[in-house]
Design brief:
The complex is a heterodimer of chains A (130) and B (299). Chain A has 130 residues and is an all-alpha fold. Chain A contains five helices and no strands. Helices cover 73% and strands 0% of the residues of chain A. Chain A is elongated, with a radius of gyration of 20 Å. A five-stranded mixed β-sheet of chain B has the order 2-1-5-3-4. In chain B, helix 8 packs across helix 10. The longest helix of chain B is centred in the first third of the chain and has 51 residues. Classes of the chains: A mainly alpha (130), B alpha+beta (299). At the A-B interface, helix 2 and helix 4 of A face helix 6, helix 9 and helix 10 of B.
Chain lengths: 130, 299
């Protein structure tokens, strides 16, 4: 073959409207996984203030909780955590060969349940923030 | 004297060559004119058919030809094709090739969804051209049907992709039946029990079209990944009880490597696009479990 044309990966992402349920589940699972890893590092950084003194840890937590952005991010954190857990359970069933023909429905169910839990959590997380 | 003769002979030869060159040139021109006239007739026929047709469709086809000046840059050509009931994507392409541009290149063979030659990327999805009815494509009369070569595979020309890597991966799983024991009589069948046949039935349907491999993002990112088609082929033989335990072990050794079944990320893209409805992801997952069972040791 003298020459050929490689369309590359950029064109792949340009087709996002054509992605199927399994593909979206994969993307969301990777994304939520990376967000959770990022959160864990932040969490460790906050916890490490306790090594200085209890008062400093309390002060740090108070300072963070007083920020509206942090409260909103907590809602987002809950959203990714719940979706990651539910999709993880879905993947466990897929690994075991259970309900493979309903893999798209179980993904949509994970989204709906995640959304319901997040909406229900909003009053608790954002109480007194505004 | 001899020099004169030679000169005369040379002159005569040159004249003959010139005449034959002229005649060859003339015949080439005539041939070109005939081809142009034939092309004009075909296009005229197409125009008449389009005028008479109750419905027409617009087909946008990916074009690329690295060997022709001015066509090295990929582009899309649009063709108008008269629509008829039962028309397939392959029919539309054949019409476009026969009536508008004879250089339009695509693979096709049996036209019965058995040979797997004409896997294409139609309206954003891997499909067999001969199996895909135009009428089944959403809003086919009001929007353009977009036909591209299979993604994640290098394009050789127009809609033709290089399948060499795909075939290499298929060969890598040793896709042939290799029973431990052969029957005694020459003509005796190697019988398989009904349950076992049912288990592997779907996996035997693979037509090597490469649609699954093209839809798999993991295969696109990892050139060594065996891919869904090859793993399905491995499944077909690993689950065949007529092959012995040693052979099954060898097959599992191939598929449980780093770039084997464990690279599958269960996106289900392969299962979604398979024109033969083979549950590819299910087979990959089953081989993963077989691999785990094969390696579990409690002592």
């Amino acid at each position: 073959m003298s020459q050929s044309y490689d369309r590359g990966t950029i064109e792949d992402f340009g087709r996002w409207r054509e992605f199927t349920a399994g593909m979206w589940a994969w993307i969301f699972h990777k994304f939520s996984g990376w967000v959770l890893i990022g959160y864990l590092f932040t969490h460790i950084a906050v916890l490490s203030t306790a090594t200085q003194s209890g008062a400093m840890y309390t002060e740090t937590i108070r300072g963070l909780e007083s920020l509206v952005a942090v409260r909103v991010l907590e809602v987002g954190l809950l959203a990714v955590a719940v979706f990651h857990i539910l999709n993880g359970v879905r993947l466990l069933f897929v690994d075991l060969g259970v309900g493979l023909e309903a893999q798209d429905k179980s993904f949509y169910a994970s989204l709906v349940v995640s959304a319901a839990i997040v909406v229900a959590s909003v009053p608790t997380f954002l109480a007194g923030a505004f | 004297m001899s020099t004169e003769v030679t000169e005369k002979e040379t002159e005569a030869q040159t004249e003959t060559e010139a005449e034959s060159g002229e005649s060859a040139h003339q015949s080439r021109r005539m041939e070109q004119k005939r081809q142009q006239a034939s092309q004009r007739d075909l296009e005229e026929e197409a125009r008449t058919e389009i005028d008479e047709a109750e419905q027409t469709i617009e087909v946008k086809v990916f074009r690329f030809d690295p060997e022709v000046a001015g066509k090295e840059e990929p582009r899309f050509d649009t063709f108008h094709v008269p629509f008829f009931k039962g028309m397939t994507v392959l029919d539309a392409l054949i019409y476009a090739r026969d009536h508008y541009d004879s250089s339009l290149t695509f693979r096709h063979s049996c036209r019965q969804a058995i040979c797997g030659s004409d896997a294409l990327f139609v309206n954003g999805r891997q499909r067999l051209g001969c199996k895909t009815q135009i009428a089944d494509l959403e809003d086919h009369l009001n929007s353009t049907i977009r036909i591209e070569p299979l993604p994640h595979q290098e394009v050789v020309k127009d809609l033709v992709v290089d399948m060499e890597h795909f075939y290499d991966q298929m060969e890598a799983v040793e896709p042939f039946f290799d029973a431990d024991e052969l029957p005694d009589g020459d003509l005796e069948e190697q019988r398989q029990d009904r349950e076992n046949r049912e288990k592997i039935k779907m996996s035997t349907r693979c037509i090597w079209c490469g649609a699954c491999m093209s839809s798999c993002n993991i295969a696109a990112g990892d050139n060594e990944y065996l891919g869904p088609a090859a793993i399905n082929k491995a499944y077909r033989f690993a689950m065949d009880e007529r092959e012995g335990e040693d052979r099954k072990q060898q097959r599992l050794n191939i598929i449980e490597q780093e770039h084997g079944v464990w690279r599958c990320q269960t996106q289900f893209s392969c299962t979604e696009v398979c024109p033969k409805d083979i549950p590819l992801t299910e087979h990959i997952q089953e081989l993963k479990r077989e691999s785990v069972k094969n390696n579990l040791k409690f002592w």
